[in-house]
Write a structure and sequence with these properties.
Strand content: 5-15%
Mean pLDDT: 87
Number of strands: 12
Low-confidence stretches: 297-307
Helix content: 40-55%
Structural class: alpha/beta
Shape: globular
Oligomer: single chain
Length: about 375
C-alpha cells in the first residue's frame, strides 16, 4: 500500500477507488504489467504509473524499515486503528504514519484551526474555549490541529495544559518537524496525543502539502472550529473541506475592523459556519451537553431500563451503545456486524421509538 500511495499521489480519489475495486494493494502491484485484469477501466496514465512502479516499491521498502526502527505505526485504510471518520472520505489516504499514544477514534474529535498570525483576542478565545470544553466534557475529547504558528499551536498547548490528548497533522514526514521551534510541544504530544502524516520521510514541507494536509484535519474530526482568519487562509480551506465532507463547522466572530476577523465573519455571514461565542454554544450545537448529564447520571448509579418492542437488530444496536455510547455509523456497523445502511435504517426506527437519536457527524446516541 505504501508503494501504491506514491503511484496515486496525484489522484487521491482514483487510487482509493481502484484499491477498493481490486481488494488489495498486492493484487494491483502483482498485476502491474497487466493491471487491467484487476482494474478493467483503469486510465492509461494510471496503467503507465503502476507498470513503472519499481522505484516506488524500493522506496516503500526503505520507508518500512525506517518506521520499524523509529517506532512509527503504519495505519492502513481499513485497519481498526485508522481514523474511521477519515475512512468515510472519498480522498482519504491509503496510508498514514503515526507516532503517539492517542486513540484516533475517540467518541469526540474536533479540530481547532485559524490564522498563523493569531492575535491576543484569538489566544484568549482558544484558552477560554478549551477551558470550557474541559468543564463540559472532562478530558474525553481529542483535539486536532496542524502544529503551525498561531491558532494551531495555541490549540495544542492549551489542550495539553488542560489534560486533553492532542494530535498534530503534519505536511511532511516524521523525520523532521516544521516549524522547528514547536519541537518541545511536539515532544510532549507524543505521550499525550501524537503526530500524524500521510507523507514519507525526506518529504519537504511544500505549500501544496499543507493544503492536502487540511483534508486529513477536516476528515478525521466531528467538527471544525475556526478561531481567527483573514479573508483568505488555510483555516478557511479546512472549513470548506469539512463542509464537503458533511461535517459541522463553527466560527467565532470578531471585530469588523480587524483583518483576522474578516474570514470568520464572512463565513458566518454566508452560512458557511455556525456562530459560537463559547464552549457551551459549541457543545449545545453538537448535542454534547446532554451527553455530559447522562455521564453524571451513570456515575450516580442510574441505570437504563431495557427497551421494549425492539427487533433483534435494534436490540443489538442498543446493547452495543449501552457499552460504548456515541459511535459513528461506520464504527457501530463494524461492532454489530450490520451493514451501514441497515444501521442507518434501524437508527431511524429507534428515533421514532424515542430510544436513540442521531447527532451531528453521523454519531449514534442512546437516550
Amino acid at each position: 500500500m505504501m508503494a501504491l500511495t506514491r503511484v496515486g499521489y496525484y489522484n487521491l480519489t482514483g487510487i482509493l477507488d481502484f484499491y477498493k475495486h481490486a481488494g488489495s494493494a498486492t493484487a494491483i502491484i502483482d498485476h502491474r504489467k497487466d493491471v487491467r485484469e484487476v482494474i478493467p477501466d483503469a486510465s492509461p496514465k494510471l496503467v503507465e504509473r503502476i507498470r513503472d512502479c519499481e522505484a516506488h516499491i524500493h522506496r516503500a521498502e526503505e520507508e518500512y524499515e525506517w518506521t520499524q526502527q523509529h517506532g512509527v505505526r503504519i495505519l492502513r485504510w481499513g485497519d481498526d486503528a485508522y481514523p474511521q471518520r477519515l475512512a468515510e472520505c472519498a480522498d482519504g489516504p491509503l496510508i498514514l504514519y503515526y507516532k503517539g499514544t492517542a486513540d484516533l477514534n475517540q467518541m469526540r474529535v474536533i479540530n481547532i484551526v485559524g490564522t498563523r498570525h493569531c492575535t491576543i483576542y484569538g489566544q484568549d478565545i482558544v484558552r477560554h474555549f478549551i477551558d470550557g470544553l474541559r468543564e463540559i466534557c472532562g478530558n474525553r475529547m481529542l483535539v486536532v490541529s496542524g502544529l503551525a504558528y498561531g491558532v494551531d499551536i495555541a490549540a495544542h498547548r492549551n489542550a495539553l495544559e488542560k489534560g486533553f490528548e492532542t494530535v498534530g497533522v503534519l505536511a511532511h514526514g516524521l523525520d523532521d518537524l516544521y516549524p522547528p521551534r514547536h519541537r518541545e510541544t511536539a515532544k510532549r504530544m507524543l505521550t499525550q496525543g501524537g503526530l500524524l502524516t500521510e507523507y514519507m520521510t525526506r518529504t519537504n514541507a511544500d505549500k501544496m502539502n499543507f493544503v492536502r494536509r487540511n483534508r486529513i484535519v477536516a476528515g478525521m474530526c466531528d467538527a471544525t472550529v475556526l478561531v481567527e482568519s483573514a479573508a483568505h487562509g488555510g483555516g478557511l480551506i479546512t472549513c470548506g473541506i469539512a463542509q464537503e465532507y458533511g461535517r459541522e463547522v463553527f466560527a467565532f466572530p470578531g471585530n469588523i475592523n480587524q483583518e483576522y476577523s474578516e474570514g470568520c465573519n464572512n463565513l458566518i455571514r454566508k452560512n458557511g459556519a455556525t456562530l459560537i461565542t463559547s464552549a457551551k454554544d459549541f457543545a449545545e450545537s453538537m448535542g454534547w451537553l446532554d451527553d455530559r448529564r447522562l455521564e453524571r447520571a451513570q456515575k450516580e448509579g442510574i441505570e437504563r431500563q431495557m427497551f421494549p418492542d425492539l427487533s433483534p437488530d435494534q436490540q443489538r444496536i442498543v446493547e452495543t451503545l449501552q457499552k460504548t455510547n456515541d459511535l459513528q455509523v461506520n464504527m457501530l456497523s463494524n461492532m454489530t456486524g450490520l451493514s451501514v445502511g441497515k444501521v442507518a435504517a434501524e437508527m431511524f426506527e429507534l428515533e421514532m421509538k424515542g430510544v436513540a437519536r442521531s447527532l451531528p457527524g453521523s454519531v449514534c446516541h442512546l437516550l
